[in-house]
Amino acid sequence: MRLLARLFVLSFVLIAARTRADAVATANAPANLTAGDLAMVLQKTDGGVALTSLVDTAAKQELLAAKPLPLVELTLRNVKSKEEVRLTADDGWGEVDIQNDPAGGLTIRWARPNWARPKKDALAGCALRVTARAIPEPEKSGIRWTLAVDSPGDQWSVWRVVFPQVALGDLGPGTEVLFPRGSGEVKRGASREAFRFEGPYPGGWVGMQFMACYAPDRKTGLYFAMHDPWGSTKDLLAASQPAEHATTLRFDHPTEDMGKANNRFSLPGEAVWRLLRGDWFDASVMYRDWARAHAKWYPRLGADGREDTPQWMRELSVWVMTGGPPEEVVPDVEHFAKEIGVPVGLHWYNWHEIPFDNDYPHYFPTKQGFAEAVRKLQGAGVFVMPYINGRLWDTRDKGAEDFEFTSVARPAVTKDADGKPIVETYGSTEGDGSKVALGVMCPATELWRNKVQGTVLRLMNECGVKGVYIDQVAAATPVLCFDATHGHPLGGGHWWNEGYWTLMDSLRAAMPKDHMLTTECNAEPFIKGFDGYLTWHWQYDDQVPAFPAVYGGAIQMFGCAYREGETKDLALRMKAGQQLVYGEQIGWFHPNVIKDEANAAYLHQVVGLRWRLRRYFFAGEMARPPKLQGEIPQVRADWQWTPNWWVQNEAVLAGAWRLPAENRAVVLLTNTSDKPVTAKLAVDAGSYGVPGAEVRVTRITAEGPGETFTAPRVFERELTFAPGSAWAWELTAP
Ligand SMILES: [Zn+2]
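Above are the sequence and the zinc ion SMILES. Below is the predicted complex in structure-token form.
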């Protein structure tokens, strides 16, 4: 009775809050769901169901745009003619039903489609059924969604499923959109300016499956995520329609067994919407909490972080990257290691006789003297990690000759829907000038898994390297492979990830103790299989460290591409400073960078400071970065990710990391500019988990601990940051 009364009052509030007159115009009663402060209204339309309102009842804010989008969009493909038709949630259904369930949820059923685009009667007689369930999470002001698509019949295959999809409205000039490119990015002024982010997940440019649209100044907004524990293949979209002051967010799933008659689709995991009363960091913490509890790739963490990662790798604080024969590599790296004075990682390219991106995967023999050089360097505090590729087999794998591609690799290469091998080209060319065409190998095949494992183990056991870098695994996105002989579902799903999981489990079990593996970029589903991710592409304007906020401590992040150009020294400080506050291992630059006095001075500070604080990054977690108050100048340099790649940032970068089990935290600060900067820093030690009314603050630099003072739990200081300086405040209980 009380519940009914509440629902009645709430629907009244909601209807009053709506600006769209047509929301109440149909004869059908709206279906309401409330979850804490989040209230949703669904409305039956002529041939479907429309999401007509999503309200933050506490802020009295309608979150949807004036022109809503269909919650679901289906693409079906005719198995014979290959013609594709589209169906949306709001139109074209012969039967629609919305049921309230006793737990406060809603079940929506669509059946018997009688209208499709572009061919109106294509689906006549099709028994297709779609069922969505919305489950309230009152304590989180959230809604969890499941979706199932069933029985398209013998003529049709469910090809792609867009779900969920929303058009969010403008939340004021401060509206921001968080999207997961690289480390994470925030588009400010979203919905009022043209903006579009879109791409396939999981990959280096879409590494996680959550987005958010929010106004931090108004403390309202929406967390919009897929909590899919398999990390299944899907496309993400965040795009604005400035004319309508709207932002579209959506997930688009290629289905398992796409193209096969009468396949079914069920949403892998749940789609989750929650009110967001903060910013990108709060959204990241929501996702982090889910990932820790449910993601299949989340590694086991102990008191000292990843216990399956060698201690030396967890602690490593600096990387160099070079390549070629030992006589060119060894002297420079030895010199760097001696100068920097802490253990060094070496990413060694072109240690093999074959050219780069050519004749893969025939990496052996090594260049003359490789194993001896590895021994020598590793005796001098340098951990050697050679490059191999984890995806590619050259179609002409012995010069211009097809040596083993057709005879050995072809059955295990990925195939498109027509059965043709999927090949890629990069910058490399064969002797005759033609592009090297590299087949993308299918990780579901034992042949490829054995090949990668064999190469890695040979490098570790015969050449003595402490680590191997397996390129592209967390960078390139899953291929929609249609080769039925591989034994995986055709096209979409999560079989691609599982193929690599099998590979990595077997490889980790077989490799010698105290060894480690890394790969390129930061697609999350492979975290458990690797010890380190090469986050070299975190080079965008408006970046935020969302990935470190979610996965700090679960994987070691290392490497940024350091490049040339007129502003290269400033770019070096901006990159190294960013790596410091993001919790990354610093580098990877050419070892000769240390021969430049100014660069050396800055790197000594940043690397030395990171080395002293290293436990925070492998056993701790990221905390909310502090925001400096005052006039902080901006710096701008050409980072040369591609030519003329200008990145702008605040001159002073700030980050915070904490060791929750040890009640301590650290605030990291670095001035990347060549001028002093004065600004105010406010610290709330309690928000970093340091207990008590007072806090002990110790200033730490590369040289060690310095000045110490005791302050109230919440305190503020005006500080002057010297040019090119890096230091930290460690916060502990007094
Ligand atoms: Zn395959």
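Residues 414, 442, 444, 481, 483, 486, 488 surround zinc ion (CB under 6 Å).
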